[in-house]
Amino acid sequence: MADLNDIRTRITTLDSNLLALLSERRELAIEVAKSKQSTSKPVRDQDREQQLLVRLINQGRELGLDSNYIMNIYHTVLEDSVLLQQAFLQQIKNPNAAVSVARVAFLGDKGSYSNLACKKYFARQDDSLVELGFPTFQQIISAVEKGQADYGMLPIENTSSGSINDVYDLLQHTSLSIVGELTQPIEHSLITTSDTDLSKIKTIYAHPQPFAQCSLFLSAHPHIKIEFVDSSSAAMAKVKELNNDTVAAIGSITGGELYGLKPIRTGLANQTENYSRFIVVARKPVDVAVQIPAKTTFTMSTGQQAGCLVEALLVLREQGVNMTKLESRPIQGNPWEEMFYIDVAANLQSENMQTVIKQLTRITNQLKVLGCYPSEDVAATDVPEDLL
């Protein structure tokens, strides 16, 4: 029987080799992006991705590897490759937007969900990251407007609790542009200072959004008092400060580790697939390279007459522009009037989208483009059973 230390040494060597190969693959992904600079060829070629996965799954089976194992690994690798190429092409398309140090404003402190989203989004950039935590969404927007921060990271919707209305309302009145987006899995855990039992918990500290997303779990424990705080990081900091096995916070395991906290219950969200979508805002808009799938977000208000909204939405259909989000919010100061927020899967510079903007400007009371930005939704390529 092989010595355990020898086995671990071999594993360490293999892991180092894997990292070197993954780094080399990333470099080749950038070379692919460079080859597409002078063409309009899309970053993604899902037919080729499917062929690649089929070949790798069949090759893996010969080596005794499970197909799901292969799929999980390469979905991550392919997603990283796509987003890396997109980031490279965007830097070429927007040379004046480059900064050596990216100052990013986010909600809460280090370890908050917004902070983790910042780290993930800007990990694909070459810039150094300066993290600036703020207690409110308004202060985040103000910091970017005043030049105290280059970017702001704002959560805008969640699959469990829905739209974050405070952010939508602030977008009505800011001159900032949406320049990016990120969809992040949100895994809520109950975290404490010790391995205490759930039955001992008397108080839970939570931000209102995680509270709403975990309402089913919390309703099953009505004896526990809920204390609301400005962010998940503030909840974790409070629990660390109290250092008592009767208090807990709702937060992420990764964030909790920064505060020396440990999970006593995981998977608290109402939905198993719990995701939050974040937007990135900046003072100036960006242009989206034609090789990259783009989203455009705009607001509009229509007349009060019957059929006005339908007439506006028909413009999108006539131009073949796919609407991915429709949200309505009251117009402050105008009772019973609504502002509609619309996301479409289209590049603002495309001919169809330019026609949409011109036609909507004529038939709506107000129209404002909030931004055109790369779509970060990299759906995993499926492999039908009949191809395996």
UniProtKB/TrEMBL annotation:
Its EC number is 4.2.1.51, 5.4.99.5. Substrate binds at residues 8, 25, 36, 45, 49, 81, 85. Keywords: Amino-acid biosynthesis, Aromatic amino acid biosynthesis, Cytoplasm, Isomerase, Lyase, Multifunctional enzyme, Phenylalanine biosynthesis. It catalyses: prephenate + H(+) = 3-phenylpyruvate + CO2 + H2O; chorismate = prephenate. Pathway: Amino-acid biosynthesis; L-phenylalanine biosynthesis; phenylpyruvate from prephenate: step 1/1; Metabolic intermediate biosynthesis; prephenate biosynthesis; prephenate from chorismate: step 1/1. GO terms for cellular component: cytoplasm. Its main location: cytoplasm. This is Bifunctional chorismate mutase/prephenate dehydratase. GO terms for molecular function: chorismate mutase activity; prephenate dehydratase activity. PROSITE patterns: ACT, CHORISMATE_MUT_2, PREPHENATE_DEHYDR_2, PREPHENATE_DEHYDR_3. Residues 297-374 form the ACT domain. Residues 1-89 form the Chorismate mutase domain. It is found in: Cytoplasm. Residues 103-283 form the Prephenate dehydratase domain. The keyword Disulfide bond does not apply.
